[in-house]
Sequence to fold (261 residues):
Amino acid sequence: LAVKHNLKSKVFSYYLAELYRSSNKLNDEVKVCQNLIKNTNNQKYNFRLVQAYDGLIVQEVYKKSTLINRIDDVSKQQLKEINNNILSYYDKQIHALLILENAYGKSIKVSKKKQEIYLKTYEVDKALEEIQKLISMDSENLNYKLEYGEVLYNLKSKESGIDYIESLTQKYPRESILYLLLADFYKRDRQLENYKNKLMDAVSLPGISLEQKVFLVSELMSIQNGNVDKRIALSLAEKILELYPQEPQSHSLLGLSLIHI
Fold:
């Protein structure tokens, strides 16, 4: 009771929120966080509120997992209610994050969280906007650009995703991860010649160790009924031998590739 009566103290409020979380009283945790913002007039605590809603979302997702395979009308109604609750919590999280952003400006922490929520709610354009913010705040971080390309390809436009990552190879020509990602895109798109060419580009770069290149080729050889992959594995093994003629691994790899054809 002494702790509850000191809600105006941010120290006690923060402690109480953590106490409620650890005892799984998640609605009480949310209320404490809301009071913390109100009583301190400090918008930074909105992020703590967002974390509190995370707990409620996890709770609802768990409930959903226990009902997902049931087909009776009661379970269907419960699932509908759970989905509505989850969407409501996501909306409240976005609201809290927008307040935070309006008060203090853009931040990587806030944009990452907003992007995560927008992807979960299938608001792809808004998720892409947040990744663009991340890129503008940390323009040399290649991971954000890779993520932008992957979201474009997977959820928006395959062609746009490929074009975007291809454009990055002009700026970062020695980043092997770009060529591996493009190889994955082209394989999924059944553009097999481009798939092969991007893998060749990747193994030609020093960014991947010999061990990693050997592992890549070994994985291609192990694909069941993957005749195309096995032929590409042979081409890659020949390239690796050309790059590392003194390494026993290179010779062994080529031998294995020939056996698997």
